[in-house]
């Protein structure tokens, strides 16, 4: 790499000793994270602000990133449009080619956005071979930096993604209320909720109370909810004993519960199942899931590194969705209780809306519950 148009070289050092050299963009910071990739061809503003990417360096397989700039934030009752949280959550971004795009609603370039938010970017690297490596050896920790290669990467890489509880960094400190125009209150146990989930609930008239991820069942029940949603979030679900207990305790109230992504995994653990780390995860917006029973395929958005395999399904539940590529369990329904969970993202953001009816189904359950 001899010439970088923004002046600075950039580097990604991987846990296995590989050093990739490219061009720096965004902010000249050094950050550590688990190196993961998404196959989404668009939606970088949503992906970068998805709290579930906290602690991870995101590699985008689509070769041109930045084409349509970064939209201006629109906030409606505290809920953002076009972004999934108030800041970039990913630790760093790796792309093949970073572009200065424009679009009618773009307020700045990707480069400027990363610069303002203190997040390093790396471009002009062969993302294809990087992804092949990650697919082959599994996800690894990495250091992203600019200027010079990292001087002591081994020390930096002592930090392991799987051992950190990121949810406490993202969860609100106190409850936040978003009012819907209809009846019914849903408490969202917020371990880093995507705003797309909040939008999906308020759009259906529901009032949303976002409570800290550390809340126990009694604190959740103080809001007399008609339904409870356990949100998506970053990190290893096996560290979240408190949240698992809260889910278990709440299941006894027989109130409709919907778990999404991390929420699905917490539910599985609460009901006695098992959640394991995958080799390189599912991250993208064109992943098929099959609904058991109807045999319908839905194209859906995924962002998960942990998963429930067939032998980890808890007793008393049945598989609702699975991924036809690798058979991973993508959703469960409880046989007796009004509990349903999905590993994928029915709110999309970014991605297709094929499965947004999951929220309609939840709404139906919430209405049946009577409090609404
Ligand atoms: N999007 C999510 O909620 C991700 C859940 C969990 N952190 C995983 O990677 O599997």
Q: Which descriptors apply to this entry?
A:
Rossmann fold; binds glutamine; alpha/beta; carbamoyl-phosphate synthase (glutamine-hydrolyzing) activity; CarbamoylP_synth_ssu_N; 372 residues; seven-stranded mixed barrel; Glucose Oxidase, domain 1; 2 domains; ten-stranded mixed beta sheet; ATP-binding; globular
Summarize the structure.
The chain is of the alpha/beta class and 372 residues long. It is built from ten helices and 23 strands.
Task: Describe, in plain words, how this protein is organized in 3D.
The protein has two domains: 151 residues, Glucose Oxidase, domain 1; 204 residues, 3-Layer(aba) Sandwich (Rossmann fold). Helices cover 21% and strands 33% of the residues. Strand 19 and strand 20 form a beta hairpin. The radius of gyration is 20 Å and the shape is globular. It starts with 8 loop residues before the first strand and ends with a helix. The model has no long low-confidence stretch (mean pLDDT 96). Bound molecules: glutamine. Glutamine (GLN) binds next to strand 20. The site of glutamine has 11 residues, from strand 20.
């Amino acid at each position: 790499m001899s010439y970088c148009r923004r002046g600075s070289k950039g580097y990604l050092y991987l846990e296995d000793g590989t050093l990739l050299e490219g061009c720096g963009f965004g902010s000249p910071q050094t950050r550590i994270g688990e190196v993961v990739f998404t196959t989404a061809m668009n939606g970088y503003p949503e992906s970068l602000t998805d709290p579930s990417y906290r602690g991870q360096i995101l590699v985008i397989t689509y070769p041109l990133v930045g084409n349509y700039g970064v939209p201006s934030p629109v906030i409606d009752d505290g809920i953002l449009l076009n972004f999934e949280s108030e800041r970039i959550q990913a630790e760093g971004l790796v792309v093949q080619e970073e572009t200065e795009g424009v679009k009618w609603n773009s307020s700045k370039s990707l480069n400027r956005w990363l610069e303002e938010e203190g997040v390093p970017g790396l471009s002009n690297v062969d993302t294809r071979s990087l992804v092949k490596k990650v697919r082959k050896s599994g996800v690894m920790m990495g250091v992203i930096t600019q200027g010079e290669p990292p001087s002591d990467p081994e020390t930096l890489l002592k930090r392991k993604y799987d051992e950190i509880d990121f949810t406490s960094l993202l969860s609100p400190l106190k409850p936040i209320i978003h009012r819907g125009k209809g009846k019914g209150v849903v408490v969202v146990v917020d371990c880093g909720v995507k705003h797309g989930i909040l939008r999906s609930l308020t759009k259906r008239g529901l009032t949303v109370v976002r409570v800290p991820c550390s809340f126990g069942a009694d604190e959740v029940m103080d809001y007399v909810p008609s339904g409870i949603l356990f949100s998506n979030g970053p990190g290893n679900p096996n560290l979240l004993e408190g949240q698992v207990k809260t889910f278990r305790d709440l299941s006894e109230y027989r109130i409709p519960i919907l778990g999404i992504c991390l929420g699905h995994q917490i539910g599985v653990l609460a009901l006695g199942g098992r959640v394991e780390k995958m080799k390189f995860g599912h991250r993208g917006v064109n992943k098929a899931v099959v609904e058991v029973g109807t045999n319908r395929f839905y194209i859906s958005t995924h962002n998960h590194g942990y998963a429930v395999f067939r032998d980890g399904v808890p007793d008393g539940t049945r598989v609702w969705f699975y991924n036809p590529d690798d058979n991973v369990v993508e959703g469960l329904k409880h046989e007796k209780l009004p509990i349903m969970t999905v590993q994928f993202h029915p709110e999309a953001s970014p991605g297709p809306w094929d499965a947004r009816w999951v929220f309609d189904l939840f709404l139906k359950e919430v209405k049946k519950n009577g409090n609404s």
